[in-house]
Write a structure and sequence with these properties.
heterodimer, A: 64% helix, elongated, B: alpha+beta, Palmitoyltrfase_DHHC (chain A), lipoprotein (chain A), Palmitoyltransferase (chain A)
């Protein structure tokens, strides 16, 4: 009996069940009493025991179907229903195995009904996997008791057939004694069984059909899956197996919960955001404070002078911290002459950022925090090295100087950063006084550095506005002096044995500036191929296949850039001396002001990281064919343009907020192209594209399936519009961690293109990706049925 | 007992509840979304919550697995006319008890120190994983009963 309110216990509700019980028990009892003895004697003595067992089975299933909770969902508390019901949407779509299923808001139970759940008007409760409300058992048939209902129907059918058959045999053998009691009773029994056999047989056949199709009565009657796209079916045999053998789900309503008292007492722990880095920076601050104490007088003078520096021209918005980190990492890579293949495919910057860091570190599966810690340590290690090798390799040292840069890239407190910046400036200016040569050499770069620093601080809103003031001194000499270490960082450090603390402060702003400077400095000398701007158009303006060519050419350029990145500081210094400080200022500022140029600096950084992946992609192009590459690049190219706008936005979440799970943080994946591709596009593209391409053959369900899967998935990445994709993402990416690169790219390209579903289905079958093929195979089963 | 506590103690009061919804992408099997709710950004590390949810998902997957044990249970139940259900608990129920113990442990070790409390999804019909957020309401005087918040009581 259903667990419903008292008012629903109407007497009329019990009439069908009582009738059914009476008929069943009564008829069978009479059969056993009047017919079975003769059968046992005449035909076989085993007949009555077998019939008894069968009848027992019928009764057991009937009892379970009648008294077992169908899977009634408890009414949601008020806490769940936060939205005003007038404003809450009536339906919520959820993606089940690639098919959009609607979840309706239940006004009585105050939640969105899970898929296959329906509200029973008789029981006035929502029932999981609701089939129907059976009046003969006066109970809802749902998830928990459907198997008993089904077995009851089966066993009842068999029982009725048996009773009818044996009763008929008895009557036929007693035709002459038809009006005797035994015969009369048997006649009544076989007439009842015969009469009710027809509807029961029909119902049994109907439910056999439902089970084979994986539908409920409710779904069949309402015509939900008439198109044949039932995401809940597992195939005929599997459905039957699940029906009979799956574990019984628990009762939700009448459970005895143990009273577990847990004391929630403040003070509460809070997660450390960038826990390591603030500590480091505080250490820096402490050391810097010590330095400041020593040089306070001079430092204060420097600070005031710095404050007077004119405001730098409006620079492009500060690149994101992660971008800076990646740039620094790339610089570090270049500085160390590492040409590691950095697989960057489609940069969605938030996703690429930590990967770029890891990749530039040599594709080690190290989380960004550890990377930064490592860089921190490296920086500390390199401090004395720099001091010991003053003049060896300016560029190398410069790059090495960038290594410790990475550590403080993470956001620091305003005060600490300000302290660091100011102290760095003051200390560097002091050092500059002692090495005028370096100062003059590095002036231009320093200006850029400072301007970039200022811009970053101002645009980031990270609370370094006073850094602008610090940089604002109009005195070019001070600017030069101050800026010098930013570029030829190592030189000052080497010359003056700067501590690691000094190395740390401004590198986060240092790196992109350095990039810019790097690009710019050789221009007077190598004005042709080293101009970074072609790389940007190469990214933005190239077309489908040319995009890859453009990338390839950029690859070459970036290689040359990489090689030439080593000497740039030296070049820069020479440039500074040759052109003069003011000229350098003029040269640098406009370029700094130019958005594409600074962006190009970032993009060049991307190019560095991408070049190796481009090489790999070249190989894959030959394998997969230009056709697919073009298609893919076309699809990817679209989002790329938008993606490159992302770094300029301040809305990029910092790294620490990025859910690790959404990136599939399996260690082997960090440095791999597969991870990037799956993270960026493939993770969602794989999710939607194979299934969508298969569903397009029958019925397209989701809005994402109509457009290019990559674009839709990339847009979903950006917009996060799909409710199920975040949830689906992690398991999908976990599955995609191991697959080989060969399977990944061809799979994507084939699904990107509007191939016929059959082809894509075949592709899915070929794919090594477990889930996608799995989902695809199980899904078309329903389609093809 | 609270009267043993110091005079000044902090109180925690329920601020809001965050609901982690079910993940229906693989059908009606019990899975919860591993998406990190934004309301918990400053309350708990993502990895911890993700780990909890993933472990719960594994537990539910184990409970709902159709395999040898579930076959045996079904056959035994049929053979005994389902009388066996009165005598022994099913595997699902056993796993639910494990889940309950796991949630209790997680609450004690991880969530309660951070001012959070997990509610067993079974209490919500396995529709949501409810996380209650508590906030420190400052210190209170000698009020004995306001220092603690209990959870997971029977409904």
């Amino acid at each position: 009996m259903p667990a419903s309110g008292g008012e629903s216990l109407k007497p009329s509700a019990f009439i069908p069940v009582c009738t059914a019980v009476c008929l069943l028990v009564g008829s069978t009892s009479m059969f056993f009493v009047f017919t079975c003895p003769w059968l046992a004697v005449t035909i076989c003595p085993a007949i009555p025991p077998c019939c008894a067992v069968l009848f027992l089975f019928v009764l057991a299933n009937f009892t379970m179907a009648t008294f077992m909770d169908a899977g009634i969902l408890p009414v949601a508390g008020e806490d769940e229903d936060k939205e005003d019901e007038f404003r809450a949407p009536l339906y919520k779509n959820v993606d089940v195995k690639g098919i959009q299923v609607r979840m309706k808001w239940c006004a009585s139970c105050h939640f969105y009904r899970p898929p296959r759940c329906s509200h029973c008007s008789v029981c006035d409760r929502c029932v999981e996997d609701f089939d129907h409300h059976c009046p003969w058992v006066n109970n809802c048939i749902g998830r928990r008791n459907y198997r008993y209902f089904f077995l009851f129907l089966l066993s009842l059918t068999v029982h009725m057939i048996v009773v009818f058959t044996f009763g008929l045999i008895y009557v036929l053998h007693h035709m002459e004694d038809l009006w005797k009691l035994h015969c009369l009773v048997t006649l009544v029994v076989i007439s009842i069984s015969g009469l009710f056999l027809i509807p029961v047989l029909g119902l049994t056949g109907f439910h056999l059909y439902l089970v084979s199709r994986g539908r409920t009565t409710n779904e069949q009657v309402t015509g939900k899956f008439q198109g044949g796209l039932n995401p809940f079916t597992r195939g005929c045999c599997s459905n039957m197996e699940h029906l009979i053998c799956s574990p019984i789900s628990p009762n939700y309503t009448s459970r005895s919960y143990k009273k577990a008292v847990i004391h929630v007492r403040p003070p509460f722990l809070r997660p450390e955001i960038d826990g390591q880095m603030p500590m480091k920076i505080r250490d820096n601050g402490i050391q810097s404070l010590a330095i400041q104490d020593k040089q306070s007088s001079a430092g204060s003078v420097e600070l005031s002078d710095i404050k007077q520096l004119k405001h730098p021209p409006p620079l492009p918005p500060k690149p994101d911290r992660g971008l800076l980190k990646s740039q620094v990492a790339a610089m570090d890579d270049v500085g160390h002459h590492t040409k590691s293949i950095i697989p960057v495919s489609i940069p969605t910057v938030p996703q690429l950022r930590p990967v770029l860091e890891a990749i530039s570190r040599g594709s080690s599966p190290i989380p960004p925090e550890q990377l930064l810690k490592a860089s921190e340590q490296q920086g500390n290690n390199k401090g004395p090295d720099l001091c010991s090798n003053p003049r060896e390799s300016p560029a190398r040292g410069n790059h090495q100087a960038s290594v410790p840069v990475q550590a403080p890239l993470l956001p620091s407190t305003v005060s600490s950063s300000l302290q660091l910046n100011s102290l760095t400036l003051s200390s560097r200016s002091l050092n500059l006084k002692h090495s005028s040569r370096y100062a003059s050499n590095c002036a231009a770069g320093s200006i850029t550095t400072s301007s970039m620093l200022a811009n970053q601080s101002s645009s980031s809103g990270n609370g370094k506005p006073s850094f602008d003031n610090l940089i604002s001194p109009a005195d070019p000499q001070f600017v030069a002096q101050r800026g010098a270490p930013a570029v030829s960082y190592h030189s000052h450090l080497m010359a003056h044995g700067a501590e690691g603390a000094m190395q740390r402060p401004s590198p986060h702003s240092y790196s992109p500036v350095f990039m810019g400077v790097t690009r710019q400095s050789p221009q007077p000398r190598d004005s042709t191929s080293r101009d970074p701007s072609p790389s940007l158009p190469g990214f933005l303006q190239r077309d489908s296949s040319p995009a890859y060519h453009g990338l390839l050419t950029r690859d070459l350029q970036s290689q040359s850039i990489a090689t030439r990145d080593v000497p740039p500081p030296g070049l820069l210094m020479r440039d500074m001396t040759s052109l003069g400080f003011q000229d350098n200022l003029r040269d640098l500022y406009p370029q700094d002001m130019t958005l594409p140029m600074s962006a190009a600096a970032r993009y060049d950084n991307f190019s560095k990281t991408i070049m190796a992946s481009i090489q790999e992609r070249r190989e894959q192009e030959e394998r997969a064919g230009k056709f697919h590459v073009n298609a893919r690049s076309q699809a990817l190219y679209g989002p790329d343009v938008g993606i490159y706008d992302i770094p300029s936005r301040r809305s990029l979440p910092p790294d620490n907020i990025r859910p690790a799970g959404s990136r599939g943080p399996t260690p082997p994946a960090y440095g791999s192209r597969e991870f990037l591709m799956s993270t960026g596009i493939l993770g969602y593209g794989m999710r939607t594209s194979p299934l969508s391409s298969s569903s397009t053959s029958s019925l397209t369900r989701g809005p994402k399936t109509s457009s290019s899967p990559l674009q839709s998935s990339s847009s979903s990445l950006q917009s996060k519009g799909r409710s199920s994709s975040p949830a689906y993402g992690p398991p999908e990416r976990h599955n995609q961690g191991p697959p080989t690169s060969t399977s990944t790219l061809p799979r994507l390209t084939s699904t990107t293109y509007p191939t016929p579903p059959y082809t894509s289905y075949a592709t899915a079958k070929r794919s090594s990706l477990p889930f996608s093929s799995e989902g695809k195979e199980s899904f078309p089963l329903g389609v093809l049925k | 007992m609270l009267h043993n506590l110091k005079d000044i103690q902090h109180t925690a009061s329920l601020v809001t509840k965050v609901f982690i919804q079910r993940d229906y992408s693989e059908g009606t099997v019990c899975r919860f979304q591993t998406k990190f709710p934004t309301e918990l950004n400053n309350k708990i590390e993502r990895a911890l919550l993700e780990q909890t949810v993933k472990t719960l998902n594994l537990y539910y997957m184990e409970a709902e697995k159709v395999g040898g044990q579930s076959y045996l249970e079904g056959c035994l139940a049929c053979a005994t006319a389902y009388i066996v259900f009165f005598c022994m608990e099913t595997r699902y129920e056993k796993v639910l008890k494990k889940i309950s113990g796991y949630i209790q442990e997680q609450n004690e070790k991880i969530y309660a120190p951070r001012g959070l409390l997990l509610t067993d999804p079974i209490e919500r019909g396995m529709r949501v994983l409810e996380i209650s957020i508590f906030e420190d309401q400052g210190s209170s005087g000698s009020s004995p009963s306001s220092g603690m918040s209990s959870c997971s009581t029977a409904r």
